[in-house]
Amino acid sequence: MNPHLHTWLSRAWRRIVFRWRRAQLDHELAEELEFHLALKQQAAGELSHIQMGNMTIAAEECRDMWSFLRLERLLQDLRYAARMFRRTPGFTAIAVLSLAVGIGGNAAMFTLVNTLLVRPLPYRAPDRLIRITGIFPRAAVPFIQQQTRTMDVAAVSPGSEYNLTGEGEAIRIVGSAISVNAFAVLGAAVARGRGFEPGEGSPGRDGVVILSNSLWRTKFGGDPSVIGRVIALNGMHREIVGIMPPTFSYPSAQVQAWVPMRFDPSNFLEYWAGEFVPLVARLRAGTTVAEAQREIQPLIDEFRKTFPYPMARDWNRDSSAIPLQRDLTGDIRGKLIILLCSVGLVLLIACANVASLLLSRATTRRKEIALRVALGARRLRIVRQLLTESVLLALVGGGLGILFGMGALSIFKSLLPSSTPGLAQASIDWPIAAAVAGLALVTGLVFGIAPALSASQIDLAQSIRTGSQRSSGAFWTRLRGGLIGAEVALTVVLVVSAGLLIKSLYTLSDVHPGFQPKQILSVRVSPNASFCIQRPACVALYDRLLEGARGVSGVAEAAIANTVPLDAEQPDLPVDVEGHPKSVDHPAPMLWSGAVSPGYIHMLRIPLLAGRDLTTADGAKSAAVLLVSASTAKHFWPGGNPIGKHIKSAGEQQWRTVVGVVGDVRQYSLSKGMPDWIPGAIYMPYAQAVREDGQIPAAMTLLVKARANTDGPAREIRTLAQDQDPNVPVGQVQPLEEVVAGSIANFRATIRVFISFAAAAILLAAIGIYGLVSYWVTQRTYEIGLRVAIGATRNRIVSMILAQGLRVALYGIVAGVIVSLAVTRFLASMLYGVGATDPLTFAAVTALVLGVAIAATALPAWRASRIDPIKLLRVD
Amino acid sequence: MGKPEAPEILPGTLDLLILRALAAGQMHGYGIAQRLRQVSEDVLQVGESSLYPALQRLLLNGWVKAAWGASENNRRARYYTLTAAGRKQLASERAEFARVVGAIEKVLNMA
């Protein structure tokens, strides 16, 4: 090996030296050969031409020996390719841009898929982590921990809002209560300080908190000495004991602090009811997911028997163990895969387009290539030249594509919920860049091969003699037709998908939400729950606030409510309904429970269908009353009169009387008025309202209706709220219309991406069809000229070319419609108010694509009709 | 793509032959061709289109050196000499050639 390397190195070195002294070497060689010739002549007399020619070949091969031949040929090819591209800027721009769009989109999507679906979670041995599906009361945690033989179980609540006070302006943060072993189970360690210790889950010892890196930086300026400092969360004093690293984002990227989950069997409500929590677990060494899955149902059966109140027989019947990563990406998995597929389609279309462009260019360059072959260029050399061109094209496209990809990635990221763990870390990384470069190269080679083969199969004499392009491989022509047809088909699939989504968005924006958000401003006011233990304190606070708000100039009406529609809060309440006794099989139904001030129903223009609205007379001391929504009334008393019937929260003794029926409001989402498990809504007067734990709701939204359509009172309203109590966090003022629009912002953004995919596809397809038909026309110039000469009218020529172009487009459209019928059902989860095979959308898309095809064919057809037969026939 | 001069020299052996010819002392290109022809009794006729590229290759590999000197007829001629590395190369190529020829012999003579 070594001597070889040595020889190789010294040879390379000498080559470099030779390169420097090239002129001298040339000169010396000439002299040497001349000397040789002279001696030869002396010996043999006159020399033949062949012998003279040998000298030239000798000189040439010697020169080759001195240079880095391959490199120089490559450079030569590259220079030539660059010159070709400069000469045809339109072709080059189209090819490079279509590749850049295709490759850029793919780079971005691959990055996202890699980051979110493929790359393992940043915890120790992430493949051993599982999620036990379903939610459980706290009591289940110690029970399962003691009984299981396959896993180490922890509870991690999804996160709720906490007031952080005593550190400047009071703010609202998201915190997650976790069992003290949760970090150990997840295999994540604190960056500073310590994790929770055993025992910190019991009351009295749980005054500790661990901060997220982002909260530590934004609120505490990244000061390491905060460890040991005591802060107030929801009025409870907690010592900061640790800070998590920035990569840790479980259960979601929005969680800013973790507190120990309290396990206190003496607190019946919290321990057995209250908020049910999700469970995560780490498989013990030597056990498999399947073993854990087999264990879960028997454990749940055992646990159900220990409930101190009757639990439904089918409670958590479908609970199982799934890999944690699958659980985390569950909601966005489908969306990502759909986007990945469609961006893949765009790349396919771009590739087909560029291949077809290169194919047609190879044909127009037949004469040039034939000339080069005649001058002695070897076939291999020409194929290599053509391949160099297409690889160069692909590389430039790929480079530009990476730039596009960075832009696209930030757009795609905005489409996914920002709470997705790991999303913030997603950035185009080197493996992805390498994959894209590889993709570009492979695409280039693939495009290159077909045209290169077609171009090198040239009948020399034929091409040069006539210069016409009459004789060309029918196979390649048909291949081009096939490519364009396939491209049209893929375009139809993308445009149909976009069409269905646009129609969904249109239907959705047209949905009447059941209330009138115009001119209403909202601001969230959230005192600590402890502040509201004394109900009158809280009632008084909001009375003061309402009174103040009504006094602000420009305010016509004011009201408070525990949630406003579509603000992502879910105030569900288990209730008892008169005449509907619950049993093991029929547990307490859940209702959407509004706690509102009188005037709220009127302010939102929610129609009163029967009975009366809430009034100021429905105070804390008067008879308990409530309103029901139309669907609640229909669900419990179909056909009957709900007025005078009774409903109460599952936890309380006294019944509340239904005094009115109001219209349904789309509280949960515009597409689904309510979650599946909630049949309807009730509205309680605020002074009488209860939550599941019997407390009065503390955090409320103040709503004001402005007289004119201005933001006028916004600042005054916020100041007013802040002035009530410095310890009460006040959110930003938001117009209700923005809340409504915000609830479908993700959907709107997804659709925008689909539209851009579809637009790119249709543009590419138009270019493809145009290129194909122009190529036909060029190829058949002679034939067309002949037809005109023997009497074909211009119209006939145009319709002949049109028919030919449209045939390819029609094949493509038919294929596309068939494929679409098969695949659009995968979009079903994203559609609203439109079927996956909506005939109207399909018809409109077919018409659109057909129209584009006609437009793209018309120009070359018109050009064909201008062919002057005299000129043409004379030349040939 | 000139016609190869008959008879064709086994590929790869030209370098060996040139090295062997130069082992006797320095020589110019024409001299090498003449010497090979004479010694082989006109069987090996090396054309210049293979001779000079081969010499360039040997130069590049560092197996021969070239220097200008005066020829028999008093003209400037380029003389090639074997280098130490060239000598070593000659020895190893000779041994390899002998091995291959021996092997071919054995095959041809098999019963």
Shape of chain B: globular
Overall shape of chain A: it is elongated
Give the N-to-C terminal Cα separation of chain A.
63 Å
- Main sheet: strands, sense, barrel of chain A: 6 strands, mixed, barrel
In short:
With 876 residues, chain A is an alpha+beta fold. Chain A contains 26 helices and 22 strands. Chain A has a six-stranded mixed beta barrel. A six-stranded mixed β-barrel of chain A has the order 14-15-20-17-19-18. Chain A has a four-stranded antiparallel sheet with strand order 2-10-1-11.
Walk me through this protein's architecture:
The complex is a heterodimer of chains A (876) and B (111). Chain A contains 26 helices and 22 strands. By secondary structure, chain A is of the alpha+beta class. Chain B is α+β, with helices and mostly antiparallel strands. Chain B contains four helices and three strands. In chain B, helix 1 packs across helix 4. Classes of the chains: A alpha+beta (876), B alpha+beta (111). At the A-B interface, helix 1, helix 2 and helix 3 of A face helix 3 and strand 3 of B.
Please give the structural blueprint.
The complex is a heterodimer of chains A (876) and B (111).
Chain A: H1 2-20, H2 22-44, H3 49-66, H4 69-87, H5 89-118, E1 129-136, H6 140-147, E2 151-155, E3 160-165, E4 171-178, H7 182-186, E5 192-193, E6 208-211, H8 213-220, E7 230-233, E8 236-243, E9 257-260, H9 268-272, E10 277-283, H10 289-305, E11 321-323, H11 324-364, H12 366-374, H13 379-415, H14 430-456, H15 460-466, H16 474-510, E12 520-525, H17 535-551, E13 555-561, E14 572-577, E15 590-596, H18 600-603, E16 608-611, E17 625-629, H19 630-636, E18 646-649, E19 656-662, E20 681-685, E21 700-706, H20 714-724, E22 734-735, H21 736-742, H22 745-779, H23 781-789, H24 794-823, H25 839-865, H26 869-875
Parallel strand pairs in A: 4-9, 6-8, 15-20, 17-19
Antiparallel strand pairs in A: 1-10, 1-11, 2-10, 3-4, 3-7, 5-8, 6-9, 7-8, 12-21, 12-22, 13-21, 14-15, 14-18, 16-19, 17-20, 18-19
Chain B: H1 13-23, E1 27-28, H2 29-39, H3 48-61, E2 64-70, E3 76-82, H4 84-108
Antiparallel strand pairs in B: 1-3, 2-3
Helix pairs in contact in B: 1-4
